């Protein structure tokens, strides 16, 4: 089972593709939700307030079955802008990403084929100009136990090199751990079978 995904770590540098006096500025942004997407779009509409079109595509989610996406032609002929941009998101296999291509019209119509090529190329340039990284899909668990059981719990954490993301160590202890999805079942069993220790999954 695949438990990794690809994304970008920071916004790309601005790229520019030109065709018959039309200018296409391409941008790629890492995003976690639709609020962040809208903020980036507003920022670019403000920055390029004299542009004709602000076309974009985005995809959110870490696993294919949970992907959400949108492609927007923003006034260009149907499927001539948003889908070619989204096609590059699919081609580079990235997610949690927004790509925007801003067009300044140069006075010469490019035709649907010319537009598809221009938007696809600007999106491709933006992605080529981004640092793409691979991340693991993780599940988060909380391990609950009384203080005297601390050594047993820490031994399991140490032996399996687990990532502790938070802990409350009082009379009633809680340790929050992050585990790669493919290893989650095995780690759950180890704690679940440990006397006087409880483990439960934290839902997103």
Automatic annotation (TrEMBL):
One Gene Ontology CC term in the entry: cytoplasm
Gene Ontology terms: biological process: regulation of translational initiation
Gene3D superfamilies noted in UniProt: Impact, N-terminal domain
InterPro entries documented for this protein: Impact, Impact_N, Impact_N_sf, Ribosomal_Su5_D2-typ_SF
One protein family per Pfam: Impact_N
Domain Impact N-terminal residues, every copy: 20-127
PANTHER family linked to this entry: IMPACT FAMILY MEMBER YIGZ, IMPACT-RELATED
Family recorded in the similarity comment: Belongs to the IMPACT family.
Protein's name in the database: YigZ family protein
Organism (species): Christiangramia fulva
